[in-house]
Design a protein that fits this description.
Blueprint: E1 4-10, H1 15-28, E2 33-36, H2 40-52, E3 61-63, E4 74-77, E5 88-91, E6 105-111, H3 115-130, E7 134-140, E8 146-152
Parallel strand pairs: 1-6, 1-7, 2-4, 2-5, 3-4, 5-6
Antiparallel strand pairs: 7-8
Length: 153
Amino acid sequence: MTTTVQFYHLLSTTRERAVPKLMEKALASGARAVMLCENEKSLKAVSDALWTANPDGFLPHEPSKSATANQNPIVLTLEETNPNGAEILCVLSGAIPASAASYSKVLDVFDGSDDTAVTSARERWAHYKTQGFLLQYVKQQPGGGWKIEAEAA
């Protein structure tokens, strides 16, 4: 299995507005996901967004420390762990997880208005490229849609 790393370049919405849509798409495909957050504050913000993003429901999730995390389709974590057997890893921390190759897809979400985040994303792209991952650069469009702008093998 070759892992695909998709870099999601946020331009017109916050991470908390964009990520629930990505998770809806993941769940619609039947996949499970782990979301790697950078700190407790961001984990809570993402959790709140998953609860409120869809007015007709919520995206079922739990923190990795929960005793029933393995039963949820989305797990939020601060460290590399995969208690629910997820196929998708959503990286919100700017990290390069050592376990990336164990997932079918890695979603690397970064803020395009933050020069440091953009520079860091370019460095992660270069790292993943040297490791042989399939890469896609997905740029947010005006209005919030997404378009694959570049691919590399």
